[in-house]
Amino acid sequence: MYDDSSAVSQVPTALVRIGKENITVDFNSAKLKAMLRRYYSYPVEHRKQIWSYLLQLPNNTEAFKHLLSKSQLPQAQRLVEQKRCKRRIIPIINALIQWHAPLINCDWLPTFVQKLDTLFPHDEIFVFEVTLTFLTNYFGEWLSDVPGPPPEIMARIDAIFTNYDPMLRDGLGSGLAAWPAYRSCFAELLYDRSWLEMMDVIFSSSPQFLEFLVVAWLISNSRQLRIDHQTFHKTMRPIDMASVVKIAQKIVAFTPSTLFAHTWFHPLQSGNYPIIEASADSVALRTLQSDQDKLLILQQQLKDERAKADAAELTQKRRNETFNAISDLVQSRGNEERIETAKAAGELNILMRRLRLEGKRLKQSEERAFLDSWRHEWDKGVDMSLTSLPFKADDEDDEMVNRQAIQMQSLSNLRQSDLMLRDSRRVSISRAKHARGEIDAHIHKTQIHNEINALNDNPDLLLKVGKL
């Protein structure tokens, strides 16, 4: 487990600053091994400093910036979105794919990176170099053949499993039962805290110890696997880290030497990151994947253009329908207004005719009333020239009669002059009334003419008059 090939056995003694207070602590291989044997994990608050010391991370800032500066691949974003991971890890995934192109097909990679990013946020280069160290050491035998599964590795794990617990291995019925746990290094199976504790053990052990941990994981969950091994790896589960490590150590002791790979841990070098050549199959797979991505992008572009064309056609159709509806509405309203105007004009003509007839009737009534009044006044007067009074033939009365006759004649003349004065006054009054009637009629006619002009200029007022 912690032999010479492991990372914890290769670390030099060094002073490491830990904590917010930057306390200097003397770290060495013995202290880390003692901590793991006792607690099976490192302290959470100091895990970043311990991992940096343990994995001997070079912090190649310039090389990392160079990878980040490359164009972002749509496949990186799609990998992150498929696993519903945080978008902030897209630059790290893109840098990993730019470093080693076959990683484009590793759908487990975003989950692995996100677990690191959750514990170590805002430190992209640390997450990148930890992931790179893991890939080059613990997946180093088959990194050129990703996404796998690698036949040699899976055959060796199956042989270790069969050698330790053949009954459980035969009960699972497949040599690939270990693949879901191995391919993502438990990132898809364990909760964050348990996974980080598992990584403490893996990073401190020899690279092949991961295979023994996978078999130990299957054995520790043998009861659930016997019930339903097909859906067992689809949900995250808790883990007893101490129990799994102890089982893995027993498996190591029980495994024959022929099944050991004897791989060593190699830290990243300062300056540049290692170059891993991809196999021909991986190159062909990436080419096919790239062609498929281009085809998908082209199909999406055509789909978007078709959708835009359909939307533009639908918009134009709606505009034409709206224009036609408005035109029909305006035309119908124009016809209605013309009909209403004609009706109002007819009703106005009838009203004017009635007004003229009413004016004539009022004028005739006034003239008739005047004539009746004149006749009545005339009838009150007495024509004394036609009146004969009785008298006696006596001589003594002749003078009196003559005087009376003279008086009566003078009264008659006075009456006649009064009547003539009244007649002249009536004539002048009649003429004045006639003149006044003509003036009123002229004024009334002028007013009616003005009202007609106003109604012709204002259709709304014309409609109101028609309603009245």
UniProtKB/TrEMBL annotation:
Query: GO biological process annotations for this chain's record?
Result: cilium assembly
Residues folding into a coiled coil are 288-315
Species source reads Tritrichomonas foetus
Please tell me whether the keyword Transmembrane is annotated for this protein. Answer: no
Keyword terms: Coiled coil, Repeat, WD repeat
Task: Report the PANTHER family cross-referenced here.
Answer: TBC1 DOMAIN FAMILY MEMBER 31, WD REPEAT CONTAINING PROTEIN 3 WDR3
Transmembrane region(s)? none
One GO cellular component term of this record is: ciliary basal body
InterPro entries per UniProt: TBC1_cilium_biogenesis
Please identify the protein, giving its name as recorded: Rab-GAP TBC domain-containing protein
